[in-house]
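Human: Not sure, check this?
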Amino acid sequence: MKILIVDDEKHIRESLKKYLSLDDIDSVTAETGEAAKDLLEKEAFDAAILDLRLPGISGQDLLQWMIEQGFQIPVIMISAHGQIEDAVNALKAGARDYIVKPFDPAELIIKLRSIVQTQRLENKVQTEERTKPDSFLIGETPVMQELKKRIGKIAESDVTVLITGESGSGKEMVAREIHRLSPNCDEPFAAVNIGGIHEGLMESELFGHEKGSFTGAQNRKLGLFEVAGRGTIFLDEIGETPLPLQVKLLRVLQERKIRRLGSNVDIPVNARIISATNRDLEKQIAEGKFREDLYYRLNVFRLHCPPLCERLNDIPLLSEHVVGKLCRRMGRSLVHLSGNALLRLQSYNFPGNIRELENILERALIYGDRNMNIIEENAIEIRNIQPKEPVKPSSASETVITIDELEKKAIFEALERCNNNHSQVARELGITRKTLLNKLKAYLK
């Protein structure tokens, strides 16, 4: 947490700074409103403490300027006993709270933490209204364990990350997992699909705009960089970014500042930037479609999201999660997949990755009986005309895996996942416990 303290009395500034530091709160001080304006345009703050009486620009005038410029910084006003009416007017103008001199520093810290937390919750609501939250990263195969290991190493830092991978492979889930494990996980996660926004609206969505800055701009709008606060902004399909916008993104990465459309004020931003692409950016650079300097700014740390065909053993876990989510959305009781249905899914290479798996399972639920509690093999409709070529045996001596062998493999993997809990395995595979025990007996003969 970083606080701006504006007071013309040196002993109050220094005392406040000391008290805040004892509570592990960083602060910067300013003696005048003019000095505070300079600081606000250079640094990002979580809150501000303003004295009502300041030389030159008063505390209330400074508050009004902050509101007019669109700074999303909650303010606490400091007033003397004879200035209570002015403090109440400041509350009406937009201050979050006020405190009367002489004041208890402990009370001030409580108020500070409260208004900062409130602002963070408001920012999260804004981002969740404009972006689509989803679940955590799912998968236990070796490639996913390695990916999670690398995510864990970078999550604690604020390093800029570039995620590569095929369309539908879960790049946004990787970005969300980085955010979830980061120290700023309570801050907003703002996701934007560059390829899904009209070119004329991109700059407004990312950087915001002022009222009247273009036809139809009836009110000020804050961009996602701003409302993300100290959280994360995720730029999906970064390879689709038009060259003019690439120049502006480069400036944000270099200077950590944005400027709303129609404004001449720079606003500092602190959000971690994660981008993702399914394109070959190096090839785009060679073709003059992507700036090399922007690429190097984005590609500080690189993660590759494996396609689903490289982690088919994660399909039972993924399917269970997807079906559960779909059942909740449809308002129906939980449905499980049969063992043969899972085997059919695991025998496919999924060129559409996780997104294709979700579509297949959604069709099975929509077209199936609403009262069914098991999705059978015949409900798994694979429509893709050109699936990826299956990997061919490297020699003639290698045999083709039979359905029985696939079934046996699925059972033993489920036993390992469920710690040999037979009832849980039976439920997961969509068979009875008696059938499971009979199959295990047959395998042990």
User: Anything to note?
Assistant: The radius of gyration is 28 Å. The longest strand covers residues 272-277. The CA atoms of residues 156 and 352 lie 32 Å apart. Residues 105-130 form the longest helix (26 residues).
